[in-house]
């Protein structure tokens, strides 16, 4: 594993690894938990692609890319009969690694990295300062969620990266601002200034004008401020209690709020 890439070979994988691949020519990354035996448990945006959902957000329907639709319409797998297994209405899916990667490269998400290492990464969502729980616990969480679901997919609140992060750390964020845990979500929304200012990096910013003029470093710092290993507003949630917490997190009012934020910025 090099310093600037997390790319790994399949034979290097261990059960409990958080892996990801890039889809649609690096437009976004897709994450999952490797559970051994060539299988990956991951969370897919199935719920957001139903025609009824698209109709309710009229103009948004045209912005759904072909690749996203292709993702939802999974080709049948001839290698493993249990590939594509999921519970009805759940976005958590068991896939073989071939179907997960779709010929993309394989990367491993790093846990327990140092702050300087974290900030050196150009692209968000490849590592975190938080440390991973023991392998058995990670795999058990993934398998539990495969049977019980992980709420509705929402790019701002609950995406595939959040799913993998939760399996690895058991951490959920308690905030009310509609900011997800992952680099993927914070790169879409941008971190609210409050989150940025409450981070330890405030010391590096001389004054409010400085905040406005920081551009190149802003993205890295907003990611740092929202990294699950840095935030103070995270709680450890046992996987058995997750449904309760997600039920609260994914209510309609909060989704609307997340959209409002993106429009106003
Ligand atoms: Zn397959």
UniProtKB/TrEMBL annotation:
Tell me the superkingdom of the source.
Answer: Eukaryota
Please name the Pfam families in this protein's record.
Answer: LRAT
Q: Which InterPro entries match?
A: LRAT_dom
Can you say what this protein is called? LRAT domain-containing protein
Give every LRAT domain span. Answer: 20-176
Gene3D superfamilies for this protein: endopeptidase domain like (from Nostoc punctiforme) (3.90.1720.10)
User: Which PROSITE patterns does the record cross-reference, listed alphabetically?
Assistant: LRAT (PS51934)
């Amino acid at each position: 594993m090099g310093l600037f890439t997390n790319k790994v070979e399949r034979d290097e994988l261990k059960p409990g690894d958080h892996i990801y691949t890039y889809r649609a020519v690096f437009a976004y990354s897709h994450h999952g938990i490797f559970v051994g035996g060539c299988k990956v448990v991951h969370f897919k945006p199935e719920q957001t692609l139903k025609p009824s959902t698209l109709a309710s957000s009229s103009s948004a329907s045209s912005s759904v890319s072909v690749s996203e639709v292709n993702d939802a319409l999974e080709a049948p797998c001839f290698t493993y009969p249990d590939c594509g297994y999921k519970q009805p209405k759940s976005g958590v899916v068991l896939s073989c690694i071939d179907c997960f990667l779709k010929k993309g490269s394989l990367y491993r998400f790093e846990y327990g990295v140092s702050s300087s290492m974290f900030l050196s990464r150009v692209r968000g969502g490849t590592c975190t300062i938080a440390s991973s729980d023991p392998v058995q616990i990670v795999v058990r969480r993934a398998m539990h969620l495969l049977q019980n679901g992980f709420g509705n997919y929402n790019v701002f609140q609950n995406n595939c990266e959040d799913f993998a992060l939760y399996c690895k750390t058991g951490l959920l964020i308690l905030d009310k601002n509609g900011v997800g845990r992952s680099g993927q979500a914070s790169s879409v929304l941008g971190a609210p200034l409050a989150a940025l200012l409450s981070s330890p990096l405030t010391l590096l910013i001389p004054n409010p004008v400085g905040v406005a003029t920081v551009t190149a470093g802003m993205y890295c710092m907003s990611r740092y401020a929202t990294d699950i290993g840095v935030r103070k507003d995270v709680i450890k949630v046992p996987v058995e209690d997750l449904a309760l917490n997600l039920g609260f997190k994914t209510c309609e009012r909060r989704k609307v709020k997340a959209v409002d934020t993106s429009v106003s910025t």
